[in-house]
Amino acid sequence: MKKARTFGLSFTALFVSLLAVGATTVYAGLPDYLTILSSTIFENPTEVSVKINVLTDPIPTGPGFAHGTGALTDGTLIVTTTHAGVLDSQTQGGDANNPIPHNHYVNLENTVDDPTFGSDCSDRGATARVESLSFESPGIAMWQANMYKIWEVPKASPPGLYHDALTTDQQDFVLGDLAVPGYQTVSFGLSLGAPGEVCVFVVHTNKATLEDLIKVVVGGQLLSIDSAALLLAGLQSSAIWMVPAMAGIAGAGVYFVRAKMNKN
User: Fold this and answer.
1) Which of 152, 140, 137 lies closest to 43, judged by CA?
2) What does the DSSP assignment read for 119-180?
3) pLDDT of 143-186, one tens digit each?
4) Extents of the domains making up the chain
5) How far apart are CA 164 and CA 140, in angstroms?
6) Global confidence as pTM
7) Residue 41 Cα distances to 49, 59, 102, 158, 211, angstroms
């Protein structure tokens, strides 16, 4: 069984250097629709969700498009992708040409600052190549207009239930530290290199805001983050509308007390 692997410091340093120069369109061959406008990471002790807004509405999919977004960590990442021509997810239903959006746990290898790497991805100037990625899709992948949502992904894959899509070997995945380098999201393009190689080209990085991944139990059922957010927003809204109502009740109470005192 392969164990979860984390990046070396060189790979984290690579992303830090990209962020320092304000990297946008590191890979000039990809269009502007992968420019990230805003992003939010939701986190609790066991799960992570990511919401990323990009420039184009709707996000293009289908043959000829191979791209995605994700949350940067100092180890295993979480990403959502679309592509045709590669069968790397059970979500594709056995059809390599099915570009349905799907999530991955993914480990990457650095191709930039390692002169001994010797790969097709490195020769083509890719930022990284895929070392391993989950065949099973963790959490929920959702695309809405110009928004990617990587929803309710466990920080660690259930032991023994996940496999490396490149080798079919059983493999456990554990997310790295999301705070390195400071809650960042990334958009990227994908391209096949030599047989067995998937090249990754960073397009844009963006500093994400962080919120607690709050879930609410109603009637014994754990609501999703979307439902919980709507419920909490409704409660807050109700509370706001209750203020003048409560003030009115309090005022009426004072009036009746005074009237009774004057009558006596």
Assistant:
1) 152
2) -HHHHTT-SEEEEEEBSS--SEEEEETTEEEEEEEESBPPTTS-BBTTT--BB--BB--TTT
3) 888 999 999 999 999 999 999 999 999 999 999 999 988 899 99
4) 9-212, 217-263
5) 19
6) 0.77
7) 6, 20, 18, 22, 6
